[in-house]
Write a structure and sequence with these properties.
24 strands, six-stranded mixed β-sheet, Aldehyde Dehydrogenase, Chain A, domain 1, alpha/beta, 2 domains
């Protein structure tokens, strides 16, 4: 795979290998951009801005719709690439493509809804006889920096609303899983003028720092770690930012919950893509009266999961992205055990696989609670009552998603009003997301919202236009 700049494929002598975490085989190689190539990509995007502003809403809609059709046609091939480069079970990769197709269609629809509004200027002193309205105009150049775990869907959430709002784009995909994102960008580029869609691969630090510091970039949309997100925020200057930085998402199970439903949802939420999901269930806070019953059911359902080749349709748990990720998960679990936690099932390691693990006896000062683990771990924390459960949920520097299981409307309302996170779901685990909802967290989970309608709004700036009728 090659980079795409000004609708031309760009290669380099220096290449990076993309490896399959299942068997460590080489899937492909990608070029390594140098400073000149990065600046060429920025120039391409900048010089193509007028090509986008001259397109009508109708044209944008049809171009995005046609790209959606092409993405459908390539669904199977791209899903296989996702599985090869990330180790995601093929069923999950196909589902990611289904979501991405829908997300692209959402963007096509939103491209026709970029509204301004009437402003009652005459309500202010001196405003008599003046009428005014606002118009939404594109920011200009949007740089999208994406992680490995949802390499197509997270790229779609950045590129599609940017294009819907008539911006040009530069995609920097993860070095661990760049191939499927590059395939997506090629599809989008096929349906837009030259230079509108550009891609860069190589060193995240070199490319990221050049994009963040360049004044011709008008917005950075980044999904990744807190340290990199805070680095971007400190160095971005006057750019608009959307930062989705993950979390340590709690799901509360109260004593009046439907335990079977809660366990089913939490098994999916804790182990989805081997726990490598930003809004995955990372802390399970259970009321004391039901903790034994809940734990027994969770262990039973965890034991039914199939670990194996991610290309098999019946595989539930594939490998983690690389050996470093496995070592970190194992370190966090061992730290918990050494501080009093108990392994109820799992904690088995083989190559890049980490078996789904249930831990009990978890305390709030353990590393597994204070940090984001990004592995297939279900840590159970005991709470005396609803108030303690909410207090535990809020005792975190993160605040992305949260879930609560209860059949009591008063308890539900208390939780949704008190939990400090960007989304709170009742009788759904924290992992729940649809691609049209506003998505983004509080505290160190980031700033800004994704979800196509909300992202399109943030990909625009507002101009006021007034007429003096006196």
């Amino acid at each position: 795979m090659e980079m795409l700049i000004n609708s031309k494929h760009i290669s380099t002598e220096e290449r990076m290998e993309v490896t399959n975490p299942y068997d460590n085989s080489i899937v492909d190689t990608i070029p390594v951009a140098d400073e000149k190539i990065v600046r060429d990509a920025i120039k391409s995007a900048k010089n193509s801005k007028n090509k986008m502003t001259n397109l009508s809403s109708r044209e944008i809609f049809y171009r995005l719709t046609e790209a959606c059709t092409e993405l459908k046609e390539q669904k199977e091939d791209i899903a296989k690439i996702i599985t090869k480069e990330t180790g995601k079970p093929i069923s999950g990769s196909l589902y990611e493509l289904d979501r991405s197709i829908e997300t692209l269609m959402f963007a096509a629809e939103e491209s026709k809804r970029v509204y301004g509004e009437n402003v009652p200027i005459d309500a202010g002193l001196g405003g008599e006889g003046v009428i005014a309205f606002t118009k939404k105009i594109p920011l200009g150049v949007v740089a999208a920096i994406t992680p490995f775990n949802y390499p197509v869907n997270l790229a779609i959430h950045k590129l599609a609303p940017a294009l819907a709002a008539r911006n040009t784009v530069i995609l920097k995909p993860s070095r661990e899983a760049p191939l499927s994102g590059l395939m997506l960008a090629e599809i989008l580029a096929n349906h837009f003028p030259e230079g509108v869609v550009n891609t860069l691969t190589g060193s995240g630090k070199l490319i990221g720092d050049l994009l963040v510091s360049n004044e011709d970039i008008n917005k950075i949309s980044f999904t990744g770690s807190v340290p990199i997100g805070t680095h971007i925020a400190k160095n971005a200057g006057m750019k608009k930012l959307t930062l989705e930085l993950g979390g340590n998402d709690p799901t509360i199970v109260l004593k009046d919950a439907d335990i079977e439903k809660a366990v089913s949802d939490i098994v999916n939420g804790a182990y989805l893509f081997s726990g490598q999901v930003c809004m995955g269930v990372k802390r399970i806070i259970v009321e004391r009266d039901i903790i034994d019953e809940f734990t027994e059911n969770l262990v039973k359902q965890t034991g039914k999961l199939k670990v194996g080749n991610p290309m098999n349709k019946d595989t539930d748990i594939g490998p983690l992205i690389n050996t470093k990720a496995v070592e970190y998960v194992d370190e966090v679990v061992n730290d918990a055990v050494s501080n009093g936690a108990n392994v109820e099932i799992g904690a088995k390691v083989k190559n890049n696989f980490y078996w789904p693990t249930v831990l009990t006896g978890i305390k709030e000062d353990m590393k597994i609670v204070s940090n984001e683990t990004f592995g297939p771990i279900a840590p159970i924390i005991e709470a005396q009552d609803i108030d303690e459960a909410i207090s535990i949920a809020n005792n975190s520097k993160y605040g992305l998603n949260a879930g609560v299981f209860t059949q009591n409307i008063h308890n539900a309302l208390k939780c949704v009003n008190s939990i400090e996170s960007g989304s709170v779901f009742v009788n759904k685990a924290s992992t729940f997301r649809t691609d049209n909802m506003p998505f983004g967290g509080f505290k160190y989970s980031g700033m800004g919202k994704e979800g196509i309608k909300y992202a399109v709004e943030d990909m625009c700036k507002t101009k006021l236009i007034g007429f003096n009728l006196n």
